[in-house]
Amino acid sequence: MGIIDFVTVEAADTAAAETFYATAFDVLGDKVRVRPSEEPSTGFRGFTLSLIVAQPANADSLMDSARQAGATVVKPASKSLWGYGGSVRAPDGTVWTIASSKKKDSGPAAREIDAIVLQLGVTDVGATRQFYVDHGLSVAKSYGSRYVELDTGPVKLALNKRTAVAKNAGVSPDGTGSHRLSITCDAGTFTDPDGYVWEAPRP
């Protein structure tokens, strides 16, 4: 148990959102979906979706296609102590980070991803970790009360402080209203302590 089948982002204009994802991030397959919602939400929604890639050229390719499809560049891609990457805000408001642990290219750019990571900004990492363990999810990595990764299959789940998630993405942590996100997983239907909604797969 504890396998995330896909995540769903909510958008006021679903047609525009679907066109954006098909154009900008054609590598997602069916792991990120869109549905309509008019739930109010302002500022940072508390989470980021991340594309992990093999080299900087791959990150640049995805950053460029996102910008051309209508995303706003939040943090231009650049080298850092941990690798290379940047972030964009999709037209529906979702913040995406695109990153590689490598600082140098080993070949020509390829539109390939190694992993999709959903990083949730939470109030209490330790308490939320235990909540998910109690719901049948398995911990893959844990750094005490600072950061946790859970073994959730094709879409990896990470827990971090809300301020840390926002800082990594280059946005202000301030925000109110709906997360405008749902997570479909075989762990069942529930809402976590920070208001993230989980849904069981439909038969």
Write up what this structure looks like.
The chain has 203 residues and is an alpha/beta fold. It has one domain: 2,3-Dihydroxybiphenyl 1,2-Dioxygenase, domain 1. It has four helices and 15 strands. It is globular and about 45 Å long. The two termini are 16 Å apart.
Total domain count: 1
Note the main sheet: 8 strands, mixed
Strand segment count: 15
Distance between the termini: 16 Å
Q: Rg from C-alpha positions?
A: 16 Å
Number of distinct helices: 4
Which class best fits the helix and strand makeup? alpha/beta
**Global outline:** globular
Side-by-side strand order of the widest sheet: 5-6-7-4-8-11-10-9
State mean pLDDT (0 to 100 scale): 96
Indicate the CATH class. Alpha Beta
As residue ranges, the low-confidence spans are none
CATH topology: 2,3-Dihydroxybiphenyl 1,2-Dioxygenase, domain 1
What is the CATH superfamily label? 2,3-Dihydroxybiphenyl 1,2-Dioxygenase, domain 1
Strand content range: 35-45%
Please estimate the helix content.
Answer: 10-25%
Protein name: Glyoxalase
Features of the shown structure:
single chain; 203 residues; alpha/beta; 2,3-Dihydroxybiphenyl 1,2-Dioxygenase, domain 1; 8-stranded mixed sheet; 4 helices; Glyas_Bleomycin-R_OHBP_Dase; Glyoxalase
Task: Give the gist of this structure.
By secondary structure, the chain is of the alpha/beta class. It has helices at 14-24, 56-68, 125-134, 162-169; strands spanning 4-11, 32-36, 41-43, 47-53, 72-79, 84-89, 95-100, 115-122, 138-143, 147-151, 155-161, 175-177, 181-185, 190-191, 197-199.
